[in-house]
């Protein structure tokens, strides 16, 4: 057996419920059986261990650059690959607590299947987003509840997984529903100005592990963002109507706006906090977002 595929494996040891380290040998062993010569890099930004530090401009040392971790780890890898203009495909071993991207793109849910996808699969090109000078893999969001993913402690995520997000969401509900922001939004050839409680600019069918019919048109390589904007409810009836729209996909609710776009330019009077792929991305008064069609390739099973 020849190891003819050079693979860099970037590992976040604290992702998910902290079990990445337990499966690391099994992962390397399975990848080796599929012809991969594996180099391992632990992600430890506090001590300077990052994908960007390891990779070179236009790096061709590796045939595949993979990561094991949550959606934040994948976003870290995507940014490094894009900013260094690296054309090789990536691989993903989802080990987070939610893993929206993995479920959306149809990656196998077993370690053996994921290793097979990298060793014997094919590269699948999909769209990513650019947010000012940063890239996001599948979602940019602002407003109520959008800080739940990064505000939830890693120890709590490790202890109880996805339930940690739900508990933090319930805890934040009283203050979150009071949030609102005035925005001026230019998208493609349209203009929109209003007050919103929450908004998402995404390339996914699932947000926070939950699918909504409002994203039924979403396609990972159609060259379009899928945008959801929600205005503040004034009554409990309004709040219930918003929830019903999310469940049913009803587009007649005046408090919910859904559209597709390739480009957005957003301005606000006060800084607005944004999350990219569930990670804190800072606060801004001006944001420009562009879709990058087919800019990233990921290894998937051949039948995909």
What features would you describe in this structure?
This protein has 304 residues and is α+β, with helices and mostly antiparallel strands. 28% of the residues lie in helices and 38% in strands. The chain contains 9 helices and 16 strands. It has helices at 20-33, 51-54, 71-83, 100-105, 111-120, 148-151, 154-160, 162-176, 236-248; strands at residues 5-11, 36-42, 64-69, 90-94, 122-131, 134-136, 139-143, 181-187, 190-196, 198-202, 206-207, 210-211, 225-230, 256-261, 263-276, 279-300. The strands form 3 sheets. Strands 5, 6, 7, 8, 9, 10, 13, 14, 15 and 16 form a 10-stranded antiparallel sheet that branches. The longest helix is centred in the middle third of the chain and has 15 residues, at 162-176. The two termini are 26 Å apart. The model is unreliable at 147-174 (pLDDT under 50).
């Amino acid at each position: 057996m020849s190891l003819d595929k050079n693979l860099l494996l970037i590992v976040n040891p604290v992702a998910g419920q902290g079990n990445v380290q337990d499966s690391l040998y099994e992962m390397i062993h399975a990848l080796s059986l599929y012809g991969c010569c594996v180099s391992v890099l632990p992600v430890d930004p506090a001590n300077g261990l990052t994908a960007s530090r390891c990779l070179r401009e236009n790096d061709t040392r590796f045939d595949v650059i993979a990561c094991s971790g949550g959606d934040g780890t994948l976003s870290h890898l995507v940014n490094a690959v894009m900013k260094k203009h690296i054309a090789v495909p990536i691989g993903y071993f989802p080990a987070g607590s939610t893993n929206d991207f993995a479920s959306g793109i149809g990656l196998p849910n077993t370690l053996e299947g994921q290793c097979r996808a990298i060793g014997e699969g094919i590269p699948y090109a999909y769209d990513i987003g650019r947010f000012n000078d940063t890239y996001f893999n599948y979602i940019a969001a602002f407003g109520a509840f959008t800080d739940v993913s990064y505000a939830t402690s890693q120890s709590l995520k490790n202890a109880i997984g996805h339930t940690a997000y739900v508990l933090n969401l319930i805890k934040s509900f009283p203050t979150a529903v009071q949030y609102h922001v005035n925005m001026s939004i230019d998208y493609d050839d349209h203009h929109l100005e209003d007050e919103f409680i929450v908004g998402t600019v995404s390339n996914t069918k699932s947000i926070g592990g939950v699918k909504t019919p409002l994203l039924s048109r979403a396609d990972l390589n159609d060259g379009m963002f899928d945008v959801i904007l929600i205005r503040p409810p004034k009554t409990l009836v309004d709040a219930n109507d918003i929830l019903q729209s999310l469940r049913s996909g009803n587009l007649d609710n005046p408090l919910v706006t859904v559209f597709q776009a390739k480009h957005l330019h957003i301005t606000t009077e006060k800084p607005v906090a944004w999350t990219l792929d569930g990670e804190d991305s800072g606060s801004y008064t001006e944001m420009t977002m562009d879709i990058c069609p087919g800019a990233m390739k990921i290894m998937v099973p051949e039948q995909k």
